[in-house]
Design brief:
Pfam families: DUF6452. This is DUF6452 family protein. InterPro entries: DUF6452. There is one protein chain. It is built from one helix and nine strands. The protein is mainly beta. It has one domain. The strands form two sheets. Strands 3-2-5-6-7 form a five-stranded antiparallel β-sheet, with no helix packed on it. The radius of gyration is 23 Å and the shape is globular. The relative contact order is 0.20.
Length: 167
């Protein structure tokens, strides 16, 4: 009889414990996190045509280039922006191999922005939204491999491209 009470008691507390969980106790989904900047690469001769690059190595300006993020055979990349500041500067090194010759060309993209926090849920907490985004290529000088770039004014999610690069 006592054993039966313990089993019923354990069952009761298990049900009570599980019913206390809320739907948002698990954080999932891309729109619940601080977004990365999405770059799309396009052919400078035909701006509607995506362009697949061989290799791009990206690193934050002022940091060692061996602390980098590498991308291969793609037409888009995603990079983070600093959330505790109003500026992020990324070096994009295009590496191309033709025959036995590999060339590497750098361009620098500077992001200036304002940040605001947006509450997502109890489980996810807050995410950062980037507003009044302004990009500058090579401190206003022409690009070495990037012929032009355009960016959006606000980065809220990773659904759309934020920076269009022609090369």
């Amino acid at each position: 009889m006592a054993q039966k009470r313990h089993i019923i008691g354990a069952l009761f507390f298990s049900i009570l414990f599980l019913s206390g969980c809320e739907k948002d106790d698990l954080c999932s989904g891309q729109d619940n996190a601080t977004p990365l900047v999405v770059f799309g690469f396009y052919n400078q001769s035909n701006v509607a045509e995506r362009k697949v690059f061989q290799n791009i190595v990206c690193y934050e300006a002022g940091r060692p280039s061996n602390d980098s993020i590498a991308f291969s055979n793609a037409s888009s990349i995603k990079l983070p922006l600093k959330i505790n500041g109003s500026e992020s500067v990324w070096v994009l090194k295009l590496k191309q191999t033709t025959g036995n010759v590999t060339t590497a060309i750098n361009d620098t993209i500077r992001f200036n922005y304002a940040t605001t926090s947006e509450y997502v849920s109890k489980a996810c907490g807050y995410k950062t939204i980037f507003m009044n985004v302004n990009t500058t290529l090579n401190n206003g000088n022409p690009g070495h491999w990037i012929t032009s770039q355009e960016s959006v004014n606000q980065i809220v999610n990773e659904t759309n491209e934020h920076v269009t690069i022609l090369y």
